[in-house]
């Protein structure tokens, strides 16, 4: 697969284009908004120039990568592509229409894929004439730096395609994992409590966002706390993924969205991209210093880590992916310091179980129910 089509030239689209071009592929980049493509290519040139300055790549390699990306003004320029990766807005109807148009253009052998982070691959493929050649290829932002790629075959995807894409992603220098087509796949399903439980603690005025972040960094060795990470991702984006997972799991209380996050989205306090979210990113803003409290910090850490480990154990029980891929996905997709199954073993599954049971009794909510497998792992 040497001719790669990318639909969408936003941050994710141009990032995937860079990855494919760096691996020697000929890349066709299309966006309905031509100005967006032009802007992204200007930014890519700056990124490549910086890599040359840092002596990460040669000037010749930089020029070669840039020349391999061909901006397109029409989808019909994709007619000779071997693989097309869609990276546009998270809207099923819009994506489906694009795929239906694409089917009329590409050959029967062309693989069509989506970079969706949470929409069902089976549902996206079901409207196509040839759903067997459709698959999910989910990169993480920024695509050139984040090593993980989730490969998600739908119910209608032909059997060998996932392994073929796995091999291609390895040749692109990525760490691929194969996941079942469940809401959120691996990372966005298992990671939900990192945000959701942190938001719940803040909503209940048990601790401030800066205290929660500090607790997870100092006790859990996470590179970023949940509120810092939500500000980086975009509070609206994070909220949207949570709503999708919650709806697609038929309103399972474990994935219930946060009213605080909704209010932040409504107020356009979206994080770094708007200059203000849970933290203020304006030029002279001072980052608040958390009031440290060892007992509080231990409770915060145990509450969030127990929810995360329980989610990983449930994913193992449902065989969403292999144990190895579950561990790899969380470490390489969201930079967790350890795999959650290993972390559970280290803390002790009995302690995790007791923590969840205490919260279940306190709140009387299904949110804190334990995976049946957790009992058997003690």
Describe this structure in words.
With 378 residues, the protein is α/β, with parallel strands linked by helices. It has helices at 11-22, 34-53, 59-67, 92-103, 121-125, 161-171, 187-190, 192-203, 209-220, 226-233, 235-248, 259-266, 294-317, 323-333, 340-347, 349-363, 372-376, and strands at 3-7, 26-30, 69-72, 83-86, 111-114, 134-139, 148-153, 175-178. The chain is built from 17 helices and 8 strands. An 8-stranded mixed beta sheet has the order 3-2-1-4-5-6-7-8, with helices on both faces. Helix 13 (294-317) packs across helix 15 (340-347). The chain is globular and about 60 Å long.
What structural class is derived from the secondary structure elements?
A: alpha/beta
Radius of gyration: 21 Å
Q: Name the poorly predicted regions.
A: none
What's the story with the biggest beta sheet? Answer: 8 strands, mixed
**Biggest sheet, spatial arrangement of strands:** 3-2-1-4-5-6-7-8
Q: Can you write the helix and strand succession as a string?
A: EHEHHEEHEHEEHEHHHHHHHHHHH
How many strands?
8
Distance between the termini: 46 Å
**Any idea what the shape is?**
globular
Beta-strand residue fraction: 5-15%
Q: Overall pLDDT, averaged?
A: 96
**Percent helix range:** 40-55%
Please count the helical segments: 17
Summarize the entry for a quick read.
The protein has 17 helices and 8 strands. With 378 residues, the protein is α/β, with parallel strands linked by helices. An 8-stranded mixed sheet has the order 3-2-1-4-5-6-7-8, sandwiched between helices.
């Amino acid at each position: 697969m040497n001719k790669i089509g990318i639909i969408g030239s936003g941050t994710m689209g141009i990032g995937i284009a860079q990855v494919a071009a760096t691996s020697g592929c000929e890349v066709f980049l299309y966006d309905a908004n031509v100005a967006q493509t032009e802007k992204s290519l200007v930014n890519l040139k700056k990124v490549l120039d910086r890599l040359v300055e840092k002596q990460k790549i040669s000037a010749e390699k930089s020029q070669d990568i840039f020349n391999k990306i061909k901006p397109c003004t029409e989808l019909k320029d994709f007619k000779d592509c071997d693989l097309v990766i869609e990276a546009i807005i998270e809207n099923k109807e819009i994506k489906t229409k694009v795929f239906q148009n694409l089917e009329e253009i590409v050959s029967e052998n062309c693989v069509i894929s989506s970079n969706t982070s949470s929409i069902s691959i089976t549902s996206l493929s079901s409207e196509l004439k040839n759903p067997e050649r459709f698959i999910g290829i989910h990169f993480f932002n920024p695509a050139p730096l984040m090593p993980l790629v989730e490969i998600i075959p739908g119910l209608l995807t032909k059997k060998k395609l996932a392994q073929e894409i796995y091999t291609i992603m390895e040749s692109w220098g990525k760490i691929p994992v194969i996941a079942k087509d469940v809401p959120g796949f691996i990372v966005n399903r298992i990671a939900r409590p990192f945000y959701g439980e942190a938001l719940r603690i803040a909503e209940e005025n048990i601790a401030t966002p800066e205290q929660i972040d500090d607790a997870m960094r100092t006790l859990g060795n996470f590179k970023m706390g949940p509120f810092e990470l939500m500000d980086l991702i975009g509070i609206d984006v994070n909220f949207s993924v949570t709503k999708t997972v919650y709806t697609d799991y038929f309103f399972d209380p474990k994935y219930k969205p946060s009213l605080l996050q909704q209010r932040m989205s409504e107020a356009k306090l979206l994080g770094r991209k708007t200059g203000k979210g849970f933290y203020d990113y304006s030029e002279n803003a001072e980052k608040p210093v958390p009031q440290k409290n060892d007992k509080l910090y231990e409770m915060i850490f145990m509450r969030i880590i127990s929810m995360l480990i329980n989610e990983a154990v449930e994913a193992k029980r449902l065989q969403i992916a292999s144990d190895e891929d579950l561990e790899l996905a969380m470490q390489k997709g969201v930079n967790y310091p350890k795999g959650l199954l290993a972390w559970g073993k280290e803390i002790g599954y009995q302690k995790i179980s007791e923590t969840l049971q205490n919260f279940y009794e306190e709140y009387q909510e299904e949110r804190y129910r334990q995976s049946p497998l957790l009992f058997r792992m003690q």
